[in-house]
Write a structure and sequence with these properties.
The structure holds two protein chains of two kinds. Chain A is mainly α. Helix content of chain A is 73%, strand content 1%. The radius of gyration of chain A is 26 Å and the shape is globular. Chain B folds into two domains: 65 residues; 216 residues, MetI-like fold, CATH 1.10.3720. Chain B contains 15 helices and no strands. In chain B, helix 4 packs across helix 8. Classes of the chains: A mainly alpha, B mainly alpha.
Chain lengths: 306, 289
């Protein structure tokens, strides 16, 4: 009896060794990716940020000089942090409100729902560069659609893209327009909210706002969290409009952090300095996602959990 | 009593009907707002510059100037750009989906030491924005490996599992498939690879399509990486070509919009063909987490 157990045990372990080998074999891509595409480069950003490195010349260790310079002398940098956070807050808030609103409408019984869902999703499949260039024509000062509409309601023409106060909100509006994927995710979430809750609340005399506030929102919190996180990470990394349209201008008013990093690294060859920006960018995103995760326990409602 | 109940029921019914009608009107209005920019861009692409500068603007052009597109194509070499863009996208999508499936399968089904640790490294990297590692990667490709003016620095990273998110998605999806199926196949003598190809892959096709789509959309929206890694004219992609075209023409709006519409077209066509997958796929990304 004991010999039999032993034998199966040994065979089991031989099988599990083989299984382990298979697993490592299949995971080779992930190992390579995690090492060379993710974690070593992250270490690289941190390390290079302590060097002065101008492309051709060999890197020179300068300690915290790059960081000191960023925070004390570089006015581009300070503006870029403000612009990036300002843009992200507008774009994220706008996208979340817009997409939840549309999803709630589409969640009601309306004719041709699938068709409308498809329509709201269309902007998401257009290539970003073409979207920004297309919209720059709508925003054009003299002949653009939006300025025509403004004059039509008796307002003055404005420069949407060429005005330092309006460029960020104008670009954020495009981000909101692109948020079709959030609508689709919200809609799927809404369809999972148990109808019984609504019916029960209605019998108890809850009005539609109360039902939204106390049933829909709590049930949707996990999906709100997911959309919030994805939308935040996407919008913080915004770079295409600066690259294809504004060059960070007018002034520094659309100088997103990613674009500033690109400029230092690839226009003026200051690799070390640009890495210092990358690293601070990383820290800022980590802080924002950290806040989201830290507060999530308090406001996310998991059905069935306690 | 009974009559009273009935009338309450009736009035509620009526209220609901009114609400539905209002909802429908709002939806139609919002859909109109969303589509109108695209229509406006398209309509501009079919008009002469003299026509688009008219006030008040013409909403429906009385003559469709297809010639704008012919003129635009003389400078904006769309087919070349499209071919180049696809040269990046197609191998990335195939490589990313395949490797994501392999890795996702290993995480979902196979037992090995260090699984928890490696998996948490994977999940951790999902929150690391690509922008952060751009410069070291650029140095690695150009200084280290001497790969310059090539698509490889954009394509090859996708062969490492198509990004942590793809691996994660595939893993989550495989976890929902009953293990009994694998076990039955094992008893029949199938190895791990046979189980993967004959049982798992047919069952997780929707998730693989999602991964393919997400990789497609990511590259479709990219401009920065293409700008950084590609220098030569022959290798120009749609995104770079369009940016350059706009920069060269400045105020020739009708041609710029013709080029913009051409760049819109492939996405819209892919979307119409694969609409079901686009929508269901995106839904899945939200639900599986």
């Amino acid at each position: 009896m004991s010999r039999l157990v032993n034998k199966t045990k040994r065979r089991r372990s031989r099988m599990s060794i083989r299984e382990e080998r298979t697993a490592y074999l299949y995971l080779i891509p992930a190992f390579l990716g995690l090492t060379f595409i993710t974690y070593l480069p992250l270490l690289g950003v941190f390390t290079i940020s302590f060097f002065e490195w101008k492309g051709i010349s060999s890197p020179k260790f300068v300690g915290f000089y790059n960081y000191v310079k960023l925070f004390t002398r570089d006015h581009f940098f300070k503006d870029s942090i403000i612009v990036t956070i300002y843009f992200s807050l507008l774009a994220v808030a706008g996208s979340m409100i817009y997409s939840l609103f549309i999803a709630m409408l589409l969640n009601r019984k309306i004719p041709a729902r699938g068709f409308f869902r498809a329509i709201f999703y269309v902007p998401y499949v257009l290539p970003a560069t073409a979207v920004y260039i297309g919209w720059s024509w709508l925003y054009e000062t003299n002949f653009g659609l939006f300025n025509y509409l403004l004059t039509k309601v008796g307002l003055k023409r404005v420069q949407f893209i060429a005005n330092s106060k309006l460029v960020v909100p104008s670009l954020a509006l495009i981000s909101v327009w692109l948020a079709g994927n959030l609508i689709v995710i919200f809609l799927a979430g809404l369809q999972n909210v148990p109808q019984i809750y609504h019916e029960a609340a209605e019998i108890d005399g809850a009005n539609s706002w109360q039902r939204f506030r106390h049933i829909t929102v709590p049930c949707m919190t996990p999906i709100i969290f997911y959309n919030l996180l994805m939308s935040l990470i996407t919008n913080m990394q915004i770079v295409v409009p600066a690259l294809s349209l504004t060059d960070g201008g007018p002034g520094n008013s659309s100088m997103f952090m990613t674009y500033l990093m690109y400029r230092y690294a690839f226009k003026s060859n200051q690799m070390g300095y640009a890495c210092a920006i990358s690293f601070i960018f990383f820290i800022i995103i980590a802080i924002f996602t950290g806040i989201l995760f830290a507060t999530s326990k308090a406001w996310i409602f998991y059905e069935g959990g306690d | 009593m009974k009559r009273g109940e009935k009338s309450i029921f009736k009035s509620r019914k009526r209220k609901e009907r009114i609400a539905s009608v209002i909802t429908f009107i709002v939806v139609v209005f919002m859909a109109f707002l969303v589509v109108f920019p695209i229509y406006w861009i398209f309509r501009t692409s079919l008009m002469s510059n003299a026509e688009i500068y008219k006030y008040p603007p013409i909403f429906i052009p009385n003559k469709f100037r297809i010639s704008n597109y012919v003129e635009t194509l003389k400078v904006f070499e769309f087919w070349k750009y499209f071919k180049n863009t696809m040269t990046i996208i197609v191998p990335s999508v195939i490589g990313g989906t395949m490797t994501a499936t392999l890795c996702g399968y290993a995480f979902a089904r196979l037992r090995f030491r260090g699984k928890k640790f490696i998996f948490s490294l994977c999940v951790g990297s999902m929150l690391l924005p690509n922008m952060v590692t751009l410069i070291p990667l650029y140095i690695m490709w150009t200084n280290g490996l001497k790969i310059v003016d090539s698509y490889l620095p954009i394509i090859l990273p996708y062969f490492t599992g198509g990004g942590a998110f793809s691996i994660f998605l595939i893993r989550q999806f495989i976890m929902t498939i009953p293990r009994e199926l694998d076990e039955a196949a094992t008893i029949d003598g199938a190895g791990k690879f046979r189980i993967l190809t004959n049982i798992i892959i047919p069952a997780i096709k929707p998730a693989m399509i999602v991964v393919a789509l997400l990789i497609f959309i990511g590259l479709w929206n990219d401009l920065l990486q293409q700008t950084v890694y590609i220098n030569s004219k022959e290798k120009t992609t749609i995104a770079i070509g369009l940016t350059n075209f706009r920069g060269a023409l400045k105020a020739d709006w009708s041609k710029t919009m013709a080029a913009t519409c051409m760049s819109f077209a492939p996405g819209v066509i892919f979307y119409i063909i694969g609409q079901k997958y686009f929508v269901e796929g995106i839904v899945m990304t939200g639900m599986k987490n």
